[in-house]
Amino acid sequence: MRYEAPNSVEAAVDLLAATEGAYVLAGGTDLLVKLRAEMLEPDLVVDIKRIAGMKDITAENGGWRIGAAVSGAEMGEHAGLLRDWPGVVEAVGLIGSTQVQGRATLAGNLCNASPAADSVPAMVAANATLRIVGPKGSRDVAVIDVPASPGKTTLAPGEFIASVFLPAKPEHGGDAYLRFIPRTEMDIAVVGCGVSLVLDGAGKVSAARVSLGAVGPKVMLVEAGAEALIGRAPKGDALEDLAAVCSAAATPIDDKRGTVDFRRHVAGVLARRATEIAAIRAKGETA
Amino acid sequence: MSQIHVTTSINGDATEFLCEAEDTLLDVLRDRLGMTGSKEGCGTGDCGACSVTVDGRLVCSCLMLGAEAEGREVTTIEGMATGDQLHPLQQKFIEMAALQCGICTPGILVAAKSLLEKNPDPTEEEVRYWLAGNLCRCTGYDKIIRAVMETAADLRRAS
To answer: With a cut of 0.85, is the ipTM above it?
Structure first.
């Protein structure tokens, strides 16, 4: 294995494109585990942390551009991100331990392509986009379009994610992410749910995005969940309808962490609870 | 394959080493630099026995390549005491018997020191969450948590 730490995007793309079996290293909290387990035997590892901007969180068009190597710990200390997208910050903060938080990244969580990745439903709910760079230049892609199947992404050879963009937080908007795990910390989601919504002057939902993780081969955007909320106050029957459509949308498998029936049920429960938290935040209150 | 030449700082000392691309920082510390205080428990980032800080950030040295240490500032358990003078956390762990076999202890001390630098007055819940990535199979954690809380209280009184 070779290790390279180029200091430009172009040099990184050239290295990745020129070598079959090359892998990108940012936080490395998944990559190094796979190296050790010999699940991967790369010819080349390209460390992107020496490239300008990869460790930066930058204000852009009212939103935030987060470099691909920014860690969960760095996001959790950023006042602007905490104010605008607390659900995304909480979701990334649920990944692993304090030590893992010191290195783990949003882009890595996405590219690892686990269906249970915590930050991914939160990014989908927030309508985050990615700047993907590669041999053909750069392109911006919605987060929902990157996971292909467990362990697989739609990135082409030579491409990597340079940054994640969280759009401007809408006025009277709020987001939240919840997951179910059977313990209190250091576990993998049995179900995860991200919600982002906007309230109008009457306290009714004017826009919403509802996403589920760990209940299918990849993250899903539940359009019917948004439809259940839009035009209604986020409480009572609207939440019951939301829960029902989220349970129906879930397509989980039985495994050691949860059964199909349990996961379907929990998908609805988490959607309801995450919506309640997002609605409190949309009113400018703390939750 | 030629080895990678890395220049870094470890516990404030300018340090150079040669390593293979595959070597983790933990491999380098233990096998190339003879700094065996950091332990390998799992090697996959679950147990925290290899905890160090890099540029002030708590990380698992088993989840980082040695080559990544170029130009960084690494601190390990070996940098915790000042000569023969133990760090207050180390002293308190002895006084309160907050260890049994000791394998997890270096990682827990490094992690606890990192917490107290960030938050000198943590709640018990905050200590427990912060140290959730440091596994101990002997103590049941209670003495460890109490030792960290007491050290924090002592340091607050002293400052």
So the answer is: yes
